[in-house]
Amino acid sequence: xxxxxxxxxxxxxxxxxxxxxxxxxxxxxxxxxxxxxxxxxxxxxxxxxxxxxxxxxxxxxxxxxxxxxxxxxxxxxxxxxxxxxxxxxxxxxxxxxxxxxxxxxxxxxxxxxxxxxxxxxxxxxxxxxxxxxxxxxxxxxxxxxxxxxxxxxxxxxxxxxxxxxxxxxxxxxxxxxxxxxxxxxxxxxxxxxxxxxxx
Length: 199
Description:
By secondary structure, the chain is of the alpha+beta class. It contains 3 helices and 12 strands; from the N terminus they run E-E-E-E-E-E-E-E-E-H-H-E-E-E-H. The two termini are 18 Å apart.
């Protein structure tokens, strides 16, 4: 049974005391080991933040996977709240913000997050004034949604995590160390101190 416990901090969104609770759930992620999923939520305003913390300490790390096969879309992704996700060839990047949350998904789910953002941006542009920008965005969308269908499409998915909690679970995924320069410039996401309060 998973138990909710109160956390003695004000909500970072609505500042109310006594409404913030935490749920911690330990589970085994295949090929990645034991993790604790921590969810902190405010019952007053609905704010919620989830992260994945490995049982063993990790060092900063990066993962890349060259995508050119439909089967790769099923590969698992563990993305912590401190991870920057990029599609290198399209110069697309999602950085962790102050309310960033971790998730476990697959490659297709991560790519769908990019296409939703592209669709939202296209919807906000004026068709006549921004026709070049719209055409460029539509080309990006085409490439993302045609991996493994159009043999000319090959994209590289990259995860950079200064805390080392993220991973691409695929036999062809490449793990590497993060350079000092990359580490200096990477955002780290939400303040982990919210998870360190005692009951």
